[in-house]
């Protein structure tokens, strides 16, 4: 298959929509799915025709390589509805390119741009009733790819399945988020897969996160695994630190995910005249800044969480509480970002794409 | 469920065995499966009744957490047939304990000993015709567990599936194995999941291994990710280095799998009077030993590969060829190990368990 027309999407209609069963005011993140899913298989060395069909379980062999060797990658995106009932994506090209970077690192085939982008547009257009208007209401979009080829030998699969599934969502976190700074466990190795949105990166964090949860903390800020002196990311969010009026965040690396929200926040902050520095942020300097009260804010940035202010952090069993400040960078930047996403402010960056 | 009797295994018989379709003399590793699989689900906080049923694909939700967050672990084991047609396992207790250590690290529920051990014995007993006699013939056993709970939120699943599948096998590698010593990519982080037999550890190696394959090397010997100066393991095998008449291997750590073949080789070598040292092995000392001809052997040790002699290694684009020696430690130790496994020599260690 080589031309776009080979990838024309077949649509198999559902009998009845499930939408009337959904209580959109009381929805938990990631548990409700829309009527359709997009499926596109890779076999015999090429991508097959994409199909949009009713969302449902599928059959897979017990020896499928995704179960044994973890060949699986994903993206997280959102669609937003504006006041005129138009539906918008936010920087989908960034997710597409990152998806294929993840694919390369995990020895999986790259998905053709037409399959990813036209697939997104077609399925979201079909499901536009599931995108509710109003700030905070979104349709969470989960493109992912898994190795479906069979065989218990540790080698890349020859068969893959690319899918897009959709889940209506409200905001991800509620309440004050307290974090632990990692001093033993780690998320990523030098020369590892930390920069890829690979499934295995997430389950690796569950146990240390559970230990943090048991002590009353919701998330971990990971540090470099060799020295545990450099602050990196929070696993589902990149992290920003405000000391006085300067905003610091770790540079992306092979250990850190190149977050779309991260780079958007940096661009917005710079436009607002905020001094943003992308450089290694040391645990010691953040602890010192907390002690001398120059540490004003810490916040996470990610698609699911958007911008998530951190209320306190713990490092080596000592808890540091952050001040509650008016008109924080976090709230200013979140406001500017969401207004662009919902088309309530002019998109001077050209980030939004209409469905 | 709390007593063993609650885990009594139900068996659903196949109509006809597939065994007569299998050409046991021309079998590739990991692609042929026996008639049955064992399935035991975890839900509502407890393990359900195990079932042995015909091997077949099963239905799973597109949002299953194994696809998105990589909660998946496995073990690799083998069954052997002796000259009296009895079938034996090799140190299955080691695999059981390691499986549950992996489960803890990946925030998955531990599998009850009765489910794992009686499950193994029952399914292998049922499939004993698939275990062929003769050195090199084995039944490869793959116990594994995956997160089958649905939902695209990065949290541990509440539902899991433990399975055992079986694949008749001959020896894993053929021909001389040449390896690359890693100087950029890495397998595991300090504080990471390298010591767990987690699915994500394997796919993370596929891309660097493909780069090595493209240069004519089959495997990579991983080094520590922080300095790339310490030799660790080969991803599907632990690694031994013989300098003069001393055998060196890296100590197990949170970055290195505690291999059953590794510890058996160490015990056998010690019994033979070989000086075995478990300590950090530096790249520099191996390169120096290769240059001054004191490096006599390198070999891998793992369940699938058993003992796999390394013919040459490459480090920073320079290739070092190992001498071909008579009566190598690798061949001596492989011979002693396999004779115990096939009941051709007395098992003074008590490693073998009859089905």
Q: Would you write up a description of this structure?
A:
Two copies of one chain form a homodimer. Chain A is α+β, with helices and mostly antiparallel strands. The first copy, chain A, has two domains: 4-169, D-amino Acid Aminotransferase, Chain A, domain 1 (2-Layer Sandwich), CATH 3.30.470; 177-341, D-amino Acid Aminotransferase, subunit A, domain 2 (D-amino Acid Aminotransferase, Chain A, domain 2, Alpha-Beta Barrel), CATH 3.20.10. Chain A is 23% helix and 29% strand. Chain A has seven helices and 21 strands. In chain A, strands 1, 2, 3, 4, 6, 7, 8, 9, 10 and 21 form a ten-stranded mixed sheet that branches. In chain A, strands 11, 12, 14, 15, 16, 18, 19 and 20 form an eight-stranded mixed sheet that branches. A two-stranded antiparallel sheet of chain A has the order 13-17. In chain A, helix 5 links the parallel strand 15 (246-249) and strand 16 (275-278). Chain A is globular, with a radius of gyration of 21 Å. The two termini of chain A are 26 Å apart. Chains A and B meet through strand 5, helix 1, strand 9, strand 10 and helix 4 of A and strand 5, helix 1, strand 9, strand 10 and helix 4 of B. Strand 5 (58-60) of chain A pairs antiparallel with strand 5 (58-60) of chain B.
